[in-house]
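Question (not urgent): is this output format expected?
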Amino acid sequence: MDSFSSSSVAGLGAVDPQLQHFIEQRFQQLVHQMTELCWEKCMDKPEPKLDSPAEACFVNCFILNRLEQTQKSKPVFSESLSD
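Got this back:
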């Protein structure tokens, strides 16, 4: 997580440490939620290796969840496109 925080704020100058911590926590929370949701959808039973259908399911699940999160966070932009 340290590489995420240092690389993401490198060009921003002074960043509020509390805001940075909040963003990092929120990011971790979203990743955890998406992982849990996709695990329930894509894994029938734990196996030693991830097979191709399960891998494809995880990839698609993460992409769809990310798109849903983006749409939820940008309702004004979506409405302006439909006008």
